[in-house]
Amino acid sequence: MSRKTLLYGMVGGDRNAFIGGVHRVAIHFEGTAFLAAGCFNPDPAANKECGEFYQLENDRIYADYKEMAEKESKRADKIDFVTIATPNFLHYEVAKKFLECGIHVLCEKPLCFEVNQAEELKKIAEERGLFFAVNYSYSGNAMVKEARELVENGTIGEVINVNAEYLQEWLIDDIGAGDQTMNKLSVWRKDPKVAGISNCVGDIGTHIEHTVSYITGLKVKRVAAVLDHFGQPLDLNANILVEFNNGAHGVFCSSQVCVGHMNGLVVRIFGTKGAIEWVQENPNILYVTLKGQPTKVYNRGMAYVTERTASVSRIPSGHPEGLYEAFANIYRVFINVILKKINGEPLTKYDYDFPSVDDGITGVRFVHAAVESSNRDGAWVKLEDVD
Ligand SMILES: NC(=O)c1ccc[n+]([C@@H]2O[C@H](COP(=O)([O-])OP(=O)(O)OC[C@H]3O[C@@H](n4cnc5c(N)ncnc54)[C@H](O)[C@@H]3O)[C@@H](O)[C@H]2O)c1
Fold this sequence. Notes:
The protein has 387 residues and is of the alpha/beta class.
C-alpha cells in the first residue's frame, strides 16, 4: 500500500525559538507529516519539557541530536526527514549526521559556514539518494512564483537590471546612543562563532540573492561589496553591486540599521519590455508594468494568474497569505517528493520546486564573495563555479 504521510523530527525550534514554530505550523497546513522526534534545546531539562509539551513519546525526546539521528535511523517507524532550525554554526554537523543516517534534510539558511562543507553535504545527499532542501522561504510565496513565470514566459523581455533590498531596523540601538528602543530576538546573529563570517549578508542578504535568482533564473557571477560594521564584530549594513551570468547588473542592499523598516524585502526586476516588483510586507500582490503602459496590480488568487501560481494559493484572494503559507508551499513540494520516491512514482519538474542544496551552496559562496570584496575595498570578487 502506498504511503500517504511522513514522520519528521526537528533539531532546534524550542518553544521560545523564532523560526521552529513557523516550520511546525507550516508542516501542519498539509496534514501529510507529523512530528515524531526532536532535540529542541541543548539544556536537557528544557529539552524534555519542550518535547513533552509537543506530546512526543518519551523515548523520542533526545538530549543530543547525534543520538537522535542514530536511534531514529534504526527504528521501523523512523522519521523520514528532519528540519534543522538551530543557529547557523550547527547546520553543517547536524545535517551531515542525519544524511549519514539516511534521513532526508530540510535545513535553515545560511546552509553552513564554508563552501567545502556545503559541497560535502551535497555529495553525501547525492550518494545516499536523499533530498536536501535549504529554507529560502520567500520562494514559496505565490506571487514570487507568478513573477518567476512572467520572467520565464518573456513578459518583461530580457532582464537588464535588478534593484533589490532587505531592510530591517532591529540592531539600530547597537550603533546609536541613547535609549534601547528595539525588541531583540536571536542576538546570536552578531556573534561570529555562532553566525559565521557575516551577520547582515548571511542572514538577509542571502534571501535577496536567492529570491532574485529564483525569479529571474539568473546567477550572481561576481560582486563588489561594501559592508559596514559600525565597530561591531560583524556587518550590520551592506551595499552590494552584482553582475549576473547574462551580463546584467544589479544592486542588493541589506541592512539591520534602517530605521522604519522591519522585514522590507523588495525585489524589482527590469527587463527590455517591462518590469515587475514584489514587496514581502504586502506579498499577495505583484506590480507589473509593460513599457508604455500603466502599472497593473496582480492579486494572488485571481483567475488571471498562471496555473502554477493558482496551484499554490490556499485561500481566496483578499484573505492575506504570508510567511506561514510560503513555508507550507515549500514543505508541500518537499514532502510530496519524498512520498513519491518512497512510493516509486515518477518525478516531474515541479517535484523539484523547492530551494535545494545547490541554492544553499550558492548562498555560502555569495556570503564569502561579499565579505572578501568588502575586505578588499569593494573590489570585484567572482563567485566560483558561475560562468
Ligand atoms: N528562512 C527564514 O525566513 C528564517 C527566518 C528566521 C531564522 N532563520 C534561520 O533559522 C535558524 C534559527 O534561527 P532562530 O531565529 O529561530 O533562532 P533562535 O535562537 O530563536 O532558535 C534557535 C533554536 O535552536 C536551539 N538549539 C541551540 N543549540 C542547540 C543544540 N545543540 N541542539 C538542539 N537545539 C539547539 C535553541 O534551543 C532554539 O530552540 C537560523 O539559521 C536562522 O538563520 C530563517
